[in-house]
Design brief:
The structure holds two protein chains of two kinds. By secondary structure, chain A is α/β, with parallel strands linked by helices. Chain A has helices at about 20-25, 30-40, 70-80, 90-95, 105-110, 145-155, 170-175, 180-185, 200-205, 220-230, 235-240, 250-255; strands spanning about 10-15, 40-45, 55-60, 80-85, 135-140. Chain B has one domain (about 5-430): Cytochrome-c3 Hydrogenase, chain B (Orthogonal Bundle). The longest helix of chain B has about 30 residues, at about 90-120. Classes of the chains: A alpha/beta, B alpha+beta.
């Protein structure tokens, strides 16, 4: 976004999601009022009744597309936004609800609802980039607060956000953690997962469960072999790749190999 | 003959997507509909075939504001199925984590989502920009203390990573609590001031004779365990939940609606807990309640904002009590063996009773899951409130009616993402 004198207009939009990623913005307790001073929060229904529609310099989109209404709405938001950013795992890979992709949606509706005929939903949960051009995807389930602030700061200055694309393993080494897989044989997605959380789970002696999604060129097959060497069965490996980024191609394809 | 519909198609300052419509004919309300259009996400279906150990992390994703509640109800249900009880410091740490979520969630709602209704602003940022900056900053500081607890015990504020069936992955040393304790001591003063600030609002003079449902524990204000009780004499173990409550699927909502099996609507959440367990709050909390003229007899739902503030004060007080008594346990997790069976648990989410039931196979695989969130249970009560509380202002401009409707719905701190398995305001005047 080019530098301008007026405060850039921000719109925050929710699609199918838990609200956690946009809540991360309200959780920036120390920075929130400063952010509100630098940016004109024109549309953010979770925070304000004002619904200033029109053009947005910056659009944050949380959630995945799971209804025909959402599929139409995202086209409209894209058309009215200069920069569109997908916030979090749902927006960037479909989220946990992408577990319904490839399943019989009607069977799912029958499981939850007494009157399936009242429910209107698509058969798939898809990332925002399947529908419109996305300028940047911020990973995480939920996004990391420090990365969200970096994203806002970078966007205000018209530069690319500094969000390293290496694996969780790098963050884990930098944090000085003992490797949970080497030391304890704990299944860990650290080697194939995009950095961002600061290797939180290994710091608590549990394996990474991949909530930041696959890093680029993730060697999931090699990791799966290693997991099997440590005694994980096919079902465990399949489930490990099928959680909050189950719709991300690298994780989805690896999971399929273990069905 | 006059007809009209007053509606809001996208209710703001709630968690998730909901709408509302009131139909009015000849000056009388014909119907009120609280609609949840948040798309369904089918968690009960996803859980089938997953391992019991995955339930706390998967169900956390139902709601970004109250993930701890989902984690707590799920682990307690699993532990009930496996026949184990997690006690001592591990139980205390769970309660501490829940205190953090109550503070964070209550202050978010009271200060940022609900207070603007009482003061006539579109949102908290508009409020801060118009003379209330100090209070908004105070509230943010208090909310931050809640988040600090969740981060300290759970690893991060949203979707904590440290909760597991049987306990935790890692538990803190006693010495690690020092900075958090200092932060909470300051937060306690902020919480006292916040109670007084909300108590100074003008409250609509409205009340109903509600059926109030909450957990009740003999020794403590309810969070993680207890029997399910009501102000009308209901007193059952959690395992009998389905015999006394049922969920109905109505055409206007993607959330199931909760009723008692005798057909009546009921209310759960802060006002219900306050009414049934007031005497179990800390002395400091009861004094604050007394100072602002609130007691267990309160049935004015608009004053729930102050009850949330009082519960937040209680949670700070209780967190400090737990921290001072804490001794590091020998192991972070209690041992257990999986077995076939059914486990049920209810805990007190910030918005009210959250019931989970799982049927498990011998190896711990989930065969069936049932999750009943507080907002589903409160929907019929919300619709009943709308019918009753706006009846005397129907001659006023639509915008006045609309604002009171929104404020009324926000009394419940509705969590729409939770309930979908929620909201837009329409008033139809015919």
């Amino acid at each position: 976004m080019a530098k301008s004198r007026h405060r850039p207009r921000l719109g925050v939009f929710k699609f199918s999601s838990c609200d956690g990623c946009q809540l991360s913005l309200l959780d920036c307790e120390d920075e929130l009022l400063a952010i509100a001073g630098a940016i004109d929060i024109a549309y953010f229904p979770e925070a304000t009744r004002s619904d200033d529609v029109g053009h947005y310099d910056l659009a944050f989109v949380e959630g995945s597309v799971t209804t025909t209404h959402e599929a139409e709405l995202i086209l409209d938001i894209r058309a009215r936004s200069s920069t569109l950013i997908a916030l979090g795992a749902c927006a960037s890979s479909g989220g946990i609800q992408a577990l319904k992709n490839g399943a019989e949606t009607n069977a799912f509706i029958d499981t939850v609802y007494a009157h399936p005929e009242f429910i209107k939903t698509l058969d798939t949960a898809t990332p925002i980039s399947d529908h419109v051009t996305v300028d940047f995807e911020l990973r995480g389930c939920p996004v990391a607060k420090h990365q969200l602030i970096e994203l806002v700061a970078a966007t205000l200055r018209g530069r690319k956000p500094q969000t390293p694309a290496y694996a969780i393993c790098i963050e884990c080494k930098m944090a000085g953690n003992v490797c949970v897989m080497v030391a304890n044989g704990t299944p860990c997605l650290g080697p194939v997962t995009h950095a961002g959380c600061g290797a939180l789970c290994p710091g608590y002696t549990r394996g990474c469960y991949g909530c930041f999604g696959p890093k680029e060129t993730a060697n999931t097959a090699a990791l799966a072999t290693r997991l099997a060497d440590h005694g994980a069965d096919k079902r465990q490996i399949q489930r490990l790749f099928s959680t909050f980024n189950t719709g991300a191609p690298a994780f989805r394809d690896e999971a399929k190999r273990h069905e | 003959m006059s007809k009209k519909t007053i509606k809001v198609d996208m209710l703001a300052r709630v968690e998730g997507e909901g709408a509302f419509a009131v139909k009015v004919k000849d000056g009388e309300i014909v119907s009120t509909q609280f609609r949840i259009f948040e798309p369904p996400r089918f968690f009960e279906a996803f859980l089938r075939g997953r391992d019991h150990s995955e339930a706390p992390d998967i169900t956390a994703r139902i709601c970004g504001i109250c993930p701890v509640a989902y984690q707590m109800s799920s682990v307690h249900a699993m532990e009930a199925a496996f026949g184990i009880t997690v006690d001592g410091p591990l139980r205390d740490l769970r309660r501490l984590l829940y205190c953090g979520e109550w503070i964070e969630s209550h202050i978010l709602h009271a200060a940022m989502l609900h207070a603007p209704d009482f003061l006539g602003y579109a949102g908290a940022i508009e409020m801060a920009n118009d003379g209330h900056a100090d209070t908004v900053k105070l509230a943010l500081e208090l909310k931050k203390a809640g988040n600090a607890i969740v981060t300290f015990v759970g690893g991060r504020e949203i979707h904590p990573i440290n909760v597991r069936v049987g306990g935790f992955y890692k538990v803190p040393h006693k010495r690690d609590f020092f900075p958090l304790r200092e932060q909470l001591l300051k937060a306690r003063d902020l919480a006292e001031a916040f109670v007084d600030w909300t108590a100074g609002f003008d409250f609509p003079d409205k009340a109903r004779d509600y059926t109030l449902v909450a957990l009740k524990h003999p020794d403590e204000y309810p969070m993680n365990e207890g029997r399910i009780v009501s102000n009308r004499g209901l007193d059952i173990p959690v395992e009998e939940y389905n015999a006394h409550f049922r969920e109905e699927h109505v055409a206007h909502s993607n959330a199931l609606q909760g009723f008692m099996t005798d057909g009546g609507a009921y209310l759960c959440g802060p006002m219900a807990r306050f009414a049934t367990s007031f005497d179990l709050m800390s002395e400091r909390t009861r004094s604050a309640a007394q100072r602002v003229g609130l007691g267990p007899e309160n049935r004015n739902p608009y004053r729930s904002i102050t009850i949330r503030a009082i519960e937040a004060l209680y949670a700070v007080d209780e967190a400090l009590r737990i921290i001072d008594a804490y001794e590091m346990p020998d192991a972070p997790v209690a041992p257990f063996m999986t077995r076939a069976g059914t486990g049920m648990a209810a805990t007190e989410a910030p918005r009210g009773l959250l019931f989970h039931r799982y049927r498990l196979e011998k190896d711990g695989t989930i065969a069936e899951a049932q999750i009943v969130p507080p907002t589903s249970q409160n929907q019929p009560s919300i619709e009943a409130d709308l019918s009753e509380y706006i009846a005397d202002i129907l001659d006023q401009p639509d915008e006045t009616i609309r604002l009171l409707c929104e404020q009324t719905i926000r009394n419940y701190d509705p969590c729409i993402s939770c309930a979908t398995h929620f909201l837009d305001l329409r008033v139809d005047r015919e």
